[in-house]
């Protein structure tokens, strides 16, 4: 019985050891909230781009900063595709602004 208790205590100690060494002094108090919010916005924009079924829109990279600003980059074959990507991002819930750095590069 003592061995079972000792094994349980050892397992709990090993499982909880990373918490004892975690350092959150450099992290902002709500930085995890921003991370989740930003990844959700990025995923929503990417999903909307993919839903248009235009392969050119899936070549556009989407990033979101902690303020809800979406940054688009990559290539598109024409200005219409660039404009569509911008409009999709702007119409996404949670987006505060859109910076579009997508280059127009038609297929050769």
CATH topology: Histidine-containing Protein, Chain: A
Strand proportion: 15-25%
Structurally, the number of domains stands at: 1
Which shape, going by the Cα principal axes?
A: elongated
SSE ordering: HHEEHE
Poorly predicted sequence stretches spanning 5 or more consecutive residues: 19-27, 29-33
Give the mean pLDDT.
Answer: 77
The share of residues in helices is 40-55%
Name of the level-1 CATH class: Alpha Beta
Main sheet attributes: strand count, strand direction, barrel closure: 3 strands, mixed
Which CATH-level-2 architecture?
2-Layer Sandwich
Gyration radius, in Å: 22 Å
Describe, in plain words, how this protein is organized in 3D.
- The chain is an alpha+beta fold.
- It has one domain (27-104): Histidine-containing Protein, Chain: A, CATH 3.30.1340.
- Helix content is 49%, strand content 19%.
- It is built from three helices and three strands; from the N terminus they run H-H-E-E-H-E.
- The protein has helices spanning 2-21, 31-51, 79-90; strands spanning 60-64, 69-76, 97-104.
- A three-stranded mixed sheet has the order 1-2-3.
- Mean pLDDT is 77; it is low at 19-27 and 29-33.
């Amino acid at each position: 019985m003592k061995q079972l208790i000792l094994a349980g205590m050892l397992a709990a100690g090993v499982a909880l050891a990373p918490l004892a060494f975690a350092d959150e002094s450099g992290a902002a108090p709500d930085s995890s909230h921003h991370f989740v919010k930003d990844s959700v916005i990025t995923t929503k924009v990417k999903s909307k781009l993919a839903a248009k079924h235009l392969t050119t829109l899936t070549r556009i990279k989407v990033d979101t900063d902690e303020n809800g600003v979406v940054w688009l980059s990559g290539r598109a074959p024409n200005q219409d595709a660039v404009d569509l990507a911008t409009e999709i991002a702007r119409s996404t819930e949670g987006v505060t602004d859109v910076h579009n750095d997508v280059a127009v590069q038609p297929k050769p």
